[in-house]
Structure formats: C-alpha cells, structure tokens
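Incident log, structure service

09:12 report received: a user says their structure output differs between two submissions of the same chain.
09:20 pulled the input from the user's history:
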Amino acid sequence: MSSVRRLPPLRSMAVICALGSSALLVTGCTNADTTRSSVAEAAQTTPATNTASPTDTSTASPTGTSTGTTSPSPSETMTDDQSERQALVPLAKVTWDKAADTAVKEVPEGKLVDLELKRTSAEATESTGSPSPSTPNPAPSQGAPEWEAKVAASDGTVHRIDIDAVSGKVFRTQAEDQDADDKQQIADLLKKATQTPEQAVKAATDKAKGTVTHVELDENDDQKAIWSVDVVSTDNWNKTTLDVDATNGKILREHVDRD
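09:34 re-ran on a clean worker, output below:
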C-alpha cells in the first residue's frame, strides 16, 4: 500500500506565514533605523551652507558680523547751503546772545531788531561807517565770520553794528538809510513785541535743537509781530526757521530748510 504525503494543516501554514512576515518586518525596521541613523550622522558632519534670500541686501563684514547697506557719507549728499553752514557755523566763537549784548551797548536805550551770522563782505571791510565809539577795532578779513546786528532806538532809527564773530569786538557802526515810514514801522513793532529776543530764542530752541544763526523782529502775513529764529542742526546742517509770536511766545510756524 503506497504511503500518502500529508499536507500541513491550514493553521500550521498560517503560523509559518506569520513568522515569515515578522522576520521581514524586523529586517525592514532594522534597515530603516540604520538609514535614519546614517542620515543624522551625515547631517552632523556636513557643514551648513548659508543662503541669503533674494531680498537680503546685508553683507558680511571682515569680522564675520552681518551689516546692512551703508548710507552715503554726508559730504556726498549735502547741498551747497548745507556745506556752507557746516563751514561757517563752527568758525563763530561768539554766540548769538553775546553778540546781541555787545550790539545793544552801542546804541543808548536801543533794542535788538535783527542779528545774523554771515561772512564778512568786502564792503564791510572798507572804511565806510565809523568805528565802534567804545572800542574801535580793525575789521576781520573778507570771508571771516561776523555777526551783523541791527539795533533800533525808541523812535525807530536803526543802527547797523558789525561784530567780529571770533573776537567778539565791534569793528563798525552805521546808521541805516530810512525814511519816516520805515522808522514808524520799526517803532510800532518794538511796542508790540512784549517778548524779548531771549525769550523767543528759548521757545525756538526748545522746539528745535541746534545753533542759533539769525534772530529778526518782523511781521507775518497776518500782520502779527513775530520773532523769526533760525536754528542750524549740527547733525545734518539743516536750518529750521521758527516764527515765534512776539506777544505771547507761542510757535506760529516751523519750517525746515533742507537745501
């Protein structure tokens, strides 16, 4: 009688298949872990490459720090007026208030109506006018800094006083050419101006920091008496003009001249 080969039961086949699948899963997981480990090791040993975005305009400095795009130097962008202020203002060793005090002393009971820092002109160095009554001094050289002051008497008569902005000495005085109407206008302005130039300058420099280069008693478009004060910033050499109400000290207008 021939023997018959018994087939393994279905349950045994299932167990075998399950064992085979488990072995494959273990092998797959081991391979995946090995792959991830290799990738991690490669990432730790490979130097990172720094890529800038298309909009990044910063550049690396020699010390390795990132710096943004630098602005042009002031000398490359300043206007002629700004360059002139930069050249003139530091030359003046006498401040506006010292010059004002000196000018007012030249006119008995006079009051300041105008004071401006400028360069000495050729006309100012000539012998026209008269030396200071108190301290006659030679005029500074042409182009040197001077304070040109105007001081008015109570009747409106205006005297021009030229002061060396380095030494502080008066080198010329001269009466202005005025008619009766001009004198009356000045006299009326002096009566309206209850604020002193010192008070007006304080109000202006509280608003705009810098060096005062011009103070003038005037009228605005509304026929109000004002002190017009120019203040130059030594950071950018812009000039700010502030109109100060000559009756109450309020700032009526502020204009920055960047030219």
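09:41 both user submissions now match this output. Likely a transient worker issue. Closing.
09:42 reviewer note: The two ends are 124 Å apart (CA to CA). The chain has seven helices and ten strands.
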